[in-house]
Amino acid sequence: MTRVLLSERLVPNIFHLVIEAPEIARSARPGQFVMVIPDEKGERVPINLADWDKEQGTIDLVFMNLGLSTRKLARFQPGDYLQTVSGPLGRPAEMGNFGHVLLVGGCYGLGGLYPLAREFKQLGNRVTCLAEARDENYIFWEEKARKVSDNYRQALRADCFASGEELGEIIKELKDNSPDLSRVVVMGCSYLLFIVSRITRELNLKTMVNLNPIMVDGTGMCGACRVSVNGQTYFACVDGPEFDGHAVDWVEYFNRRRAFLRQEELALALYLNRTLD
Amino acid sequence: MSKEDSLESGLKEKLAARRQQEWRKALRQEVSGRIRLQIPRHKMPEQPPARRAGNFLEVNLGYSLEVAREEARRCLDCGEPGCVSGCPVAIDIPTFIKYIEAGEIDLALSTIRETNSLPAICGRVCPQEVQCEKNCNLVKAGRESVAIGHLERFAADYVRQQEEPLTVSPCGKPGNEKIAVIGSGPAGLTVAADLAQLGYQVTVFEGLHLPGGVLTYGIPEFRLPRFILNQEIKLISDLGVEIKTNFLVGRTATLNDLRQAGYRAFFMGTGAGLPSFMNIPGENLAGVCSANEYLTRVNLMKAARFPEYDTPVPVVKKAAVIGGGNVAMDAVRTALRLGATEASIYYRRSRAEMPARVEEVKHAEEEGIKFNFLTVPVRYLGDDKGRLTGMVLQRLTLGEPDASGRRRPVPIPGSEFEVETELAVVAIGQSPNPLLIRQVEGLKLGRWGNVEVDPSTMATSLEGIYAGGDAVRGGATVILAMGDGRKAARAIDRWLRRC
Question: How does DSSP assign B304-322, residue by residue?
Fold first, then answer.
């Protein structure tokens, strides 16, 4: 059982938990995730590490309350206990000094972006953070991100997310003004990962995406999280979750993410029925 | 592993001395061998196939005390018991069986526990027909072997209470060092139990949220009920073993971190958790999954009780399972219990080469599983949403024997045909879990990514690090893993005591 120390709603649909997990905090690296089981009958759900504190022995989880498990998590209060938390899992994001790095985050990805920015900055990179959101009400951790980046930008959706126009313009402008921009890392919802990869492919900008496929154990034992990258099959939980966004088979990725849609909708509806009475 | 490896020095003498005890002699005289030979083997009572295909309750119901004693009476208590040399952990089988005949079930169980920490489990999942029972002298006399597995299971189920921890170190000095056991499957649990009994402070690190390894995530309830497993694990915790779940060595902490925390010796029982796929077109369609995924959802996450439990599992009318081993049998029988009206095995060799336990195949057939031999998928078919709709299969014939000694399946050109299916479970094997073993610098690995060990001590190429079970063997059985654990425990004790 793992104790929740802080629980807050960051923006209307995104929550933040700080939990006691000293062993995970000691080993955590940017780009990794943990497996959380909310309660006794819960599933194992992967959640990105958004921050950690080795001294305090705590980790920060940021997630969107979308499905059953994240809605359950959003209800946890300080002093409550999660069934289990294990990790850190996945390979850490590839770090290094690439000159100028652009970090794009959307929805819960604005959380996981922060430790990436912090470490890229420490390694001597020039860091630009680009936050994508529907409108300013969905932006969070701006101050935190500004502290560890040289440049902070926002792309507000303004009804044109599907084509990614706003994002495309900003990324193109950044690239034009910064010849040493050599790497993009994207955290957040699948569609954002896909759109940014499409934009940067045209600009020939190396782009790493932090995938979030369906997982069961998260330790490389089941292969539920199979993704095709450059025609090869990888297990996202142990070979990733960070992959080259230009090499991911996105059609397969979206299809596999929908594999349990019907059951997920049913479970959520039953849960909402039960808890809203 | 040769028989010599598994036989402790002095074992023969010990068996012979016990056989000469008065009570044993008396039992032998009480009923003559001729009469014993006339008793037919007692069938294991089972749930009827039609009923059990719709539930997850255990198929085998177990012997009653009377039946067990009668079955024990079939054992001739031979002077040269073949059964013991067929057992990877060299259980003193005649002694435990004679104790059952005498009605001393407690003593029967403690005899088993001398060398086997998980009797209720082994009685259920060991392939006795190729081990102890194969070597039973009754077989040589043209009879069916004594039902050793059923009797082992009976003893464990009947007693279900903790025996006093036994064993003194052969070195004569008790240990007290901290030992890290990585993985809580059958190999790890055995090492832990043995070393704890020698006085060591043992911590078992388990990556998942429940202990048991493959016994928990792999083997279904209808073969190994969870309460049996939990009781066996509790007995091991009661010896003072600490089991730390949610701790993935290699991620949560490295081996070096543990060394700095004071652990002196390590046992890697990390299993063969990496599922193999065939790398054929369409394998990543939604609806194709590994047996590990399918079984983990149902066994570890209780997906059969979705939506009461949150983890879903595909529920389909037509299910196909690829493979012919125990894992394939477990998967296909699980599909049936989840409501499939047609659950089929596709295996590339013929019935004779199937690696599954005979009892599992028999149970599967009784339940109505369809077996398709000499057939292998060559590609999967999907709809425009990326969901599996069927597969293209190819027929094979058997050619010359290959490295495994089994006849190699050879494709028949032009024999492709299609079948519809909504679910394909790939159960063609697993290889060692690479997560930890690839991280340990200098650790010598074999061709399949398995850890190389000295087979007599289970010592790896690195001092103080031992390994066993499927991490070494690739994909074997519970009892072989336990045999490795036993050997490693003894070697670790000798190494730390320098004797």
Answer: GGTTTSS------SEEEEE
A14 strand-pairing partners: A11, A64
CB B83 within 8 A of CB B89: no
**Is B286–A259 a contact, with Cβ atoms under 8 angstroms apart?**
yes
Question: pLDDT value at position B169?
Answer: 52
**Domain with residues B277-428, CATH architecture:** 3-Layer(bba) Sandwich (3.50)
What is the architecture of the domain spanning B178-273+431-497? 3-Layer(bba) Sandwich (3.50)
Interface of B with A (CB under 8 A): 207-209, 217, 245-248, 251-253, 257, 273-275, 277, 279, 283-287, 289-290, 292-293, 296-297, 300-302, 306-312, 385-387, 433-435
Contacts of B251 in chain A (CB under 8 A): 27, 87-89
Q: Is any Cβ of chain B less than 8 angstroms from the Cβ of A264?
A: yes
The reply to whether residue B434 touches residue A220, judged by beta carbons under 8 angstroms, is yes
pTM for the model stands at 0.89
Residue A84 contacts B, CB cutoff 8 Å: yes
Two tokens at A45? 């759900």
ipTM value for the complex: 0.94
Question: Chain B within 8 Å of A70 (Cβ-Cβ)?
Answer: no
Q: Is B277-428 the same fold as B178-273+431-497? A: yes
Give the start-to-end residue ranges of the domains of chain B: 3-159, 178-273+431-497, 277-428
Residue A140 in tokens: 């969070």
CATH of domain B3-159: 1.10.1060.10
Q: Which domains, and CATH codes, for chain A?
A: 2-89 (2.40.30.10), 93-210 (3.40.50.80), 213-277 (no CATH)
Tens of pLDDT along A228-265? 999 999 999 999 999 999 999 999 999 999 999 999 99
**Tokens matching residue B473:** 């063997």
Select from B290, B302, B306 the Cβ nearest to the Cβ of A223.
Answer: B290
Q: How far apart are CA B125 and CA B152, in angstroms?
A: 11
Contact criterion met (CB < 8 Å) for B209 and A223: no
Going through B206-350 in order, the beta strands assigned E by DSSP cover: 242-244, 263-268, 274-275, 288-290, 318-322, 342-346
CB-CB neighbors (< 8 A) of A270 in chain B: 307
Q: Which two tokens stand for residue B174?
A: 């008790």
Task: State how far residue A89 is from chain B, nearest Cα, in angstroms.
Answer: 6
Range B28-51 average pLDDT = 91
Q: Is the pLDDT of residue B347 over 50?
A: yes
Cβ of residue A43 closer than 8 Å to a chain B Cβ: yes
